[in-house]
Amino acid sequence: MATLEKIRSKSVLLLVIIGVALLAFILGDFFNSGRTLFGPGTTVAKVDGKSIDVQEFQRRVEEANQQMQNSGRKIDQAALQQQVLNEMVFETLYKDEINKLGLTVTNSELTEAMFGTGAEALNRMIQQQYGLESAQQLHDMAYNPDKYGVPAETAEQLKAMWVNLENQTEEGLLQQKFNTLFTGAFVANELDAKALYDENGTTSQVAYVNKPYSSLPDEQFEVSDADVEKEWSANKQMYAIPEENRTISYIAVDIVPSAEDMAAAQNAINKVLGDLSSTEGLAALDGKNEFVADRQRVATSKIRDSRVKAFADSAAVGSAAIVNRMGNDFTLAKMFGRSFETDSINVDMIAVQGNKATMDSVMAALNAGTSIPEIGNKFAGVQGAQDSLWISMLDPQIVQYKETMLNAPVERFFNPDTTATANGGYIFRVKQRRAAVPVVDMAVINYTIEPSNATVNTLEAGLNKFITENTTAQAFADNAAKAGYQVFPATVSASTPMITGMEDTRSVIAWAMDAKKGKVSPIFGDEQTGRFVVAALNDIYDDYTPARDPQVKTMLTSKVRNDKKAKALIEQYKGKANDLTGYAALMAVPVDSAKVTFGQINPFNNGFAGSEVAGRVAATPKGKMVGPMQGANGVVVLQVINVDKQGRPYSYDESAALYARSRGSYALGRNIQQVLLGNKKVQNNILTFFK
């Protein structure tokens, strides 16, 4: 009884212990499965509240990786992932817009696109990729496999392929419908077309004087933080950002060989060269895996590298030398021998499956006059043929039948015994032998100077000492130069795959997006990435890049100061002269000239004095003088000398086409993702899954 009472008295404690254990088990399951209680779960991104699943994202990344490998291209993995995510964000926006518009594809439209007159492009693709006649045949094989003798498993694969093609075709048709609506929504009316024509059809010739702002000393025009903040607030929307940005300072230390490494490497190369010259073969390289040798026999005329060819043409047998150096990469070579021989022959080659009797029958028929295209129809054992094939007599793989090839009669089919097996072999016909040429037996040896472990450790230790002694962003920036490091600025976000083009730096970005303001990072990188990187988090920006941002502050300070200078200069010169010559004398500047076509003014071409001055020019009649007024780089006084309207005659069609390209559907279509995004928010969780 006493024991039972003790258990009852401790029941609350037992429940707490059991509850904690269960909670630990549940949390462990969440963490081990990659899920979180309050985090993004399996959502790699959200687009206006709609989720993009991480598993589908990973599948798309794998597809993109495969495409890169197939095309021989290489891209930073973080950059590829962000590229794929951008595509999926656009697809989400696009599908959402299509659903809102109520666009659909009917069965008859899909059938016409896949089987009817619209199937031409699809049929070509199927012919190229699958070797089938048409989409109709692919569909028939998938759903009537017995007709073609297709196994059930293959039929299921064909069905999956067909469903995928249907989905792709449907998406293409939806895109066509959307594009038609989008293009039709931004068409120039008569007023738009005529206004655009007038803007581009009138050119004003102006004479002007410009008193530059730089003529006044900056120190006379103080700009306070309040001035900068006021200017920023007046144009706040210009500084809106789509996601949280963080500004960092970073140091990148390249892991490269030291002077000691270079000297040691040169000694190693010199020793290897001496040993190569005094020993047989490549014995001098035994145990030296850093020297990578490729020995081959080659015609000197086939050597493409001019430096290697120069060695091949002149080196004595048994000698070795450095033939090239580019940075830390060395190319060495050793000459083993020289000869003068036929390096290649041209042959026809037929592959035959069967015993020797079959081989002899095929060969006899060929020598009796049966053509190569006809021989396959006559003998089932013929597996394939190649005509006019050039074969290198220096290739080690043909050593077994080299002599037969060199001595066989021309234009007669024969079967080298060395190519025959119990199941068949090859029949050849020599068509042409090239004349003997100079051939060398030589080795090309590549060697790269790598940083030693001591060098790597020294670089890492020095950087570690610096961040240990400078634990704040301010100290990081202030003391870097004294420690021998150069600091660079960067702005990053969750959507930034790498820092200023440096591959393998997303781990630094992940740290920055999770760090507290003013903190300094640990060391990132290793010998594989080729550098060590450390960073300090300077600031965090939420919805806008603030006026305190160094670049924004510098730009706004210059703008406010120039505004103050413009006001002072206008007050100084206003009404003080009656013509340009008088203003030129007062300002001590020459009279200059320019042509202004208002329709050609844009952010990339703001004219001789800025867009506002260009607007004043367009509204000023011939002969009138205007100013002083504020320009982009100084205070301007100008006079319109002539107005030329002798352009092409007005055509609505031409002007409407120009409108579409510059302001309408074509112009907007180039930024369709931003148009569809509008003020919708994209939440990028990629750093939660990939760092």
Q: How would you describe what is shown here?
A:
The chain is an alpha+beta fold. It contains 26 helices and 18 strands. A hairpin with a 3-residue loop joins strand 16 (625-630) and strand 17. Helix 5 crosses helix 9 (152-185), helix 7 packs across helix 9 (152-185) and helix 10 (190-201) packs across helix 23. The protein starts with a helix and ends with a helix. The model is unreliable at 1-38 (pLDDT under 50).
Key attributes of the depicted protein:
single chain, Chitinase A, domain 3, 46% helix, 4-stranded antiparallel β-sheet, extended, 691 residues, Triger factor/SurA peptide-binding fold
Number of spatially distinct domains: 6
State the CATH class of the largest domain: Mainly Alpha
Strand order of the biggest β-sheet: 15-3-17-16
Strand content: 15-25%
Q: What form results from the Cα inertia axes?
A: extended
Q: Which consecutive residue ranges, at least 5 long each, have pLDDT under 50?
A: 1-38
Second CATH tier, the architecture of the largest domain: Orthogonal Bundle
Q: How helix-rich are the residues, as a percent range?
A: 40-55%
**Sheet/helix structural class:** alpha+beta
- Taking Cα atoms only, what radius of gyration do you get, to the nearest Å? 38 Å
How far apart are the termini? Answer: 59 Å
Strands, total number: 18
What about the largest sheet? 4 strands, antiparallel
